[in-house]
Amino acid sequence: MEAYTSGRKRLVLVTLCSGLFMAMLDNLVVATALPAIGADLRAGTAGLQWVVEAYSLAYAALLLSGGVLGDRWGRRPVYVAGLTLFAGGSALCALAGSLPVLVAGRAVQGVGAALITPGSLAILRHVFTEDGERARAIGVWSGVSGSGLALGPVVGGPLVDRFGWAAVFWINVPVGMAGLLLAARVLPRVPRSGARPDPVGQLTVVIGLGALVYALMEGPVRGWGDARVLGAGGAALLALLAFVLVELRVAAPMMDLRLLTDRVTGTAAWAAFATAFGFFGLGVFLSLHLQYVLGFSPTEAGWAMLPATLATALTSVAAGRLVARRGPRGPLTTGLGLLAAGLAAFSCYGTGARYAEFAWVLVVLGAGLGLTFTPVSIAVTGAVPPERAGMASATVAMVREVGGVAGVAVMGAVLTARLAAALRERLPADGGRTAGELARAVTTGGGMGPARTAQAVNSAFVTGLHAACLAAAGLLVVVAAAVPVFVRRPRSAGPDEVAGALVRRS
C-alpha cells in the first residue's frame, strides 16, 4: 500500500471534506429559500415539497449504487464524476425559470451526492491506515458532515436575503470546481474490488428505495390511504424483498446484509436512522417555527441555527478521539441521549417563548449530532475489508438519508394531525377554509387571514410541533437504550477486530 506523508494526508482530508460538506449542506440549505422560491415560481405546497425531496429521492435511491460503482470502477473517478454532476445540477437549479426545471436540477444534485458520499469515506479509510489516526480523521470528516447539515439554514438565510434564492445553488459551483481541481491533484488511486456486477440487485434497490422515499414524501400530503401512496408503498415492499432475496443468492452481492444484522453494525445503522429522523425533521419544522411563529427573517432564522452548527463541529472531533481510545459505545449512547433530551426539552417552550430562552436546546442537539456521526461511521466502515469500504459507507449513508426523509414525513404527519385537531377546537372554520386547509397553510407560510386566525394557527402549530418532537424523542430513547446492550465490544477492540469477526463468521 502506498505510504502517505502527514501533509498529503491532510490535503486528502481537506479535499474529501470540501465535497462532502457541499453534499450535506444541500440537504437543508434550501429550507430557508422555500418562501422566496414559492413566490417567484408560483409554486404551491406540493411543488415546494418536491424542491426539498427530489434531492433526497435521488440521493437515497442511488447511494448503494454509488458505493458499488466506486468499489468496482475506482473511487477517484466516481468521486470526480459525482462532483461534476453536483456542480452541474447546482447551476441548473440556479438558472431554473420554472418549477419542473428546478426539481430536475435538484435530482441531478442528488445523483452527484450519491456518488460523492460513499467514495469520500472509502478513500479516507484507505489513506488513514492506523486505527487511532483513522478514528481522528473520521471525527473531522463526520464533523464536516454534521456541520454541513446544521449549517444549511445558517448559510441559506443570508444568501436569500441579500442575493435571492438562486444564490443557495450558485455557491456550489465555485466550491465544486475547486474540489475538482483538488481531487485531480491530491486524491490517490484506490485499488478496485474486482467483484462482478450485480445488475438485478442495483435495479431492485433503486426501485425499492425510490418508491419508499416517494411514499414517505407523499403520505403526509395526499394522505396515507391515497392510491398512489399505497401503490408506492407496495412497490417498495416488493422491490426491497426482491433485493434481499437476490443479495442472499448472488455470488457477488452489492450489499453485505450482515452489516444490518450484526450486533454492532446493525445497531449503529439504527442509530444513524434515528439521528437523522429527529434532526432532519426538527431542522425543517424549526425553520418554519422561527419564520412564521416568531417572525424571523430568513437570515435571522439561519443564524439562529449557529449554536447547533458549532456544537456539532466541536463534538465530532472530540468523538473521534473518544472512539479511538474507548470504542463507539459511550459516545453513541451519549449522543442519542442528548438528541432525545433536546427534542423533549424543546417541547416545553410555548408560542410566547423567545429564542434566547431555548437557544441552549440547539447546543444540546448539535452536540448529540456530533457524538453520533463519528462512532456510526467508524463502526460500520471498520467492519468490512478495505475494498468494500465504499459499500459500507453507502449503506450507512442510505440508512441515514431514509431516516431523514422518514423523520420529515412522520414528524410532519404528527404535527399536521395535532395541529388540525387543535384548530378544530379553537377555530372550526375561517373564511371558508377548513382546519385542515389552515394546517397546510402554516407549513408554507400561506396567508392566514385575520390576526385572530393567525394567532390560533401559530398556537396550534406549536402544539403540533411539540407532539412531533416527543414522538422523535421516544424513538431516540429506544435506540439509545439498545446501544449499551448490543454494542459490547471490549475497550481495546478496534475496527479491524470487528472486520476480523465478520470475516471469520463468513
UniProtKB/TrEMBL annotation:
Membrane topology: Multi-pass membrane protein
Location(s), subcellular: Cell membrane
Keywords, sorted A to Z: Antibiotic resistance, Cell membrane, Membrane, Transmembrane, Transmembrane helix, Transport
Major facilitator superfamily (MFS) profile domain span: 12-491
Pfam families hit by this protein: MFS_1
Segments traversing the membrane: 47-66, 78-101, 107-128, 140-159, 165-187, 199-217, 229-248, 269-290, 302-323, 335-352, 358-381, 402-423, 465-487
Keyword Membrane: yes
Family the entry assigns: Belongs to the major facilitator superfamily. EmrB family.
Stated name of the protein: MFS transporter
Organism the protein comes from: Streptomyces luteireticuli
